[in-house]
Amino acid sequence: MYAGCLVEIGPTSEILRDPLHPYTQALIASLPSLDAREELRGIPGLPPSLLRPPPGCAFHPRCPVAVRRCQSERPLLREVCPGRWVACHLVMDGGFV
Ligand code: SF4
Separation of 91 CA from ligand 1 center, angstroms? Predict the structure, then answer.
């Protein structure tokens, strides 16, 4: 979930192995490793206000792959491959366009 909206649904093991939504990807990439000693990676920017969320995709101010459409059009949650649901304009049929 991001800003109170579902952005990705699927089996946990698949999402952890192959996250499709840019927020899920950033979230998983920011998880600290128990083995490696490395700098923690956060997601740049701040979470949006839930009272005044940004127009379009709520993640667009922080998304590294946002396009113009993301600023005005809210992406719908849709099934991009069996059992995997993603709300992102750039994810089609299981991967990025
Ligand atoms: S819809 Fe646009 S801003 Fe939102 S996650 Fe997808 S690419 Fe990023």
Answer: 9
Residue 63: which domain range? 1-97
Structural domain count, the chain: 1
pLDDT in tens, 7-56: 999 999 999 999 999 999 999 999 988 887 888 889 999 999 999 999 99
Which atom from ligand 1 is nearest to the alpha carbon of 70?
Answer: 2
Per the CB < 8 A criterion, the answer to whether 57 and 2 are in contact is no
Spatial separation of the C-alpha atoms in residues 26 and 66, rounded to whole Å: 13
Ligand 1 pocket: which of 65, 71, 73, 74 to mutate (most atoms <8 Å of CB)? 65
84 and 52 Cβ atoms separated by less than 8 Å: no
